[in-house]
Inverse folding.
């Protein structure tokens, strides 16, 4: 079994979907094709719900129209037909004032998961048009999760049983990324950009031989090519280095993706959609080689839109276990991930994504017990395998708020 995952960023036009079918035509059987929502559909669906809750019905209608037209035009361009009009009805149903329950996260999952249904149905129909035998599978009947909407956790044991029962034929399966369902049958999602993780879940449970992530880029570089110049291409990367990079915020793959693949030593490739004969970057087990591949190549990871929050007890008491405990309970409660932490005797700082809504709630709660200060619009820069020149390159003309150095990695919070 092979798993091929195609991201929404490359699936923006009818031509792109036809190009996908050419790649799939050459895939081994059996394979599972995991599809993200087309282009910006997830954001658009998110916005429909947001505007609905704000009661801006004119905006809702405009966005809805945009989503529907976009998908209809793709179908027209491909000269195919799907039953996606039922999905358009479903969108309307979710935002009908009569039935809206107010459980935002639950409604969010119902809404945004529809993007992947539409895209995967289109891909399946397009494969059929080119006589590529395939079966569309509703992944919600396979990937079972808990009830944590928008960031559901996988029930691996049950998912494995269901996946092995379902994917038994020597054919091409097409399915939705990003989505699952709780044991009680409610649609859940795995976190934004979660389709990569779907591919990894299927690879793990089906003992796949190989997973290919088809992307806009040639593979993995030592820096985000959209943010830095003179980047270098990395033909091979160890699982370990890949995990480190996604942990620090590299956008190569969804952070949860590598572990299941590493655990079963499944072959992983990040491949360029428009250069299908090129292997891209292969992520491999380092034990095959005696040392890391690029010990001398600095790897840059930049996370923007960061907020640095400094928390001090009101009475100058030490930041000890009890205070730390209080802070971590709140971080867990609002599901805020500390991208970097630092503590001194009387203050504790965390750098995190400035997700304004969640952060506002956190700040309010923290202020009950602590003196809280913060700085916004910061960047968190990580350099692996750093050199003096690499550090100079990313910190020149910047104001440094925090610097943390270990043997392999240096991190800066800067403005
Ligand atoms: N469509 C979802 C998102 O944009 C999942 C994915 O693309 O991986 O977050
Ligand atoms: Mg997407």
């Amino acid at each position: 079994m092979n798993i091929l995952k195609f991201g929404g960023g490359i699936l923006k036009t009818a031509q792109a979907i036809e190009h996908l079918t050419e790649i799939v035509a050459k895939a081994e059987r059996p394979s599972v094709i995991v599809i993200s929502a087309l282009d910006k559909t997830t954001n658009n669906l998110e916005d429909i719900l947001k505007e609905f809750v704000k009661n801006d019905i004119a905006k809702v209608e405009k966005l809805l129209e945009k989503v529907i037209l976009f998908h209809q035009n793709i179908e027209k361009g491909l000269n195919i037909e799907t039953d996606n009009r039922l999905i358009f009805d479903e969108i309307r149903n979710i935002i009908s004032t009569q039935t809206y329950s107010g459980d935002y996260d639950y409604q969010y999952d119902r809404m945004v998961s529809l993007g992947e249904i539409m895209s995967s149905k289109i891909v399946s129909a397009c494969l059929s048009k080119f006589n590529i035998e395939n079966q569309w599978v509703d992944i919600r009947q396979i990937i079972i999760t808990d009830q944590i909407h928008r960031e559901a956790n996988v029930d691996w044991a049950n998912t494995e049983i269901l996946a092995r029962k379902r994917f038994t034929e020597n054919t091409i399966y097409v399915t939705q990324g990003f989505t699952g369902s709780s044991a009680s049958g409610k649609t859940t999602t795995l976190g934004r950009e979660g389709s990569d993780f779907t591919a990894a879940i299927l690879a793990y449970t089906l003992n796949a031989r190989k997973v290919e992530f088809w992307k806009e880029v040639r593979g993995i570089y030592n820096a985000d090519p959209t943010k830095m110049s003179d980047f270098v291409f990395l033909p091979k990367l160890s699982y370990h280095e890949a995990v480190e990079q996604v942990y620090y915020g590299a956008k190569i793959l969804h952070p949860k993706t590598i572990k299941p693949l590493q655990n079963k030593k499944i072959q992983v490739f990040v491949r360029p959609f428009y250069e299908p004969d090129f292997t891209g970057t292969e992520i491999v087990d380092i034990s095959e080689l005696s040392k890391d591949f690029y010990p001398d190549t600095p790897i840059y990871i930049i996370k923007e839109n960061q907020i640095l929050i400094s928390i001090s007890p009101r009475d100058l008491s030490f930041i000890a276990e009890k205070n730390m405990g209080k802070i971590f309970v709140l971080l867990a409660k609002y599901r805020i991930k500390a991208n970097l932490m630092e503590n001194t005797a009387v203050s504790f700082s965390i750098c995190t994504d400035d997700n304004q809504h969640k952060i506002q709630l956190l700040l309010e709660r923290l202020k009950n017990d602590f003196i809280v200060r913060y700085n916004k619009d910061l960047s968190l820069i990580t350099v692996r395998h750093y050199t003096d020149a690499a550090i100079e390159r990313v910190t020149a003309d910047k104001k440094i708020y925090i610097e943390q150095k270990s043997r392999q990695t240096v991190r800066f919070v800067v403005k």
Notes: The pocket of aspartic acid (ligand 1) is lined by residues 7-8, 36-37, 42, 115, 177-178, 192-195 (CB under 6 Å). Residues 104-129 form the longest helix (26 residues). The mean pLDDT is 94.
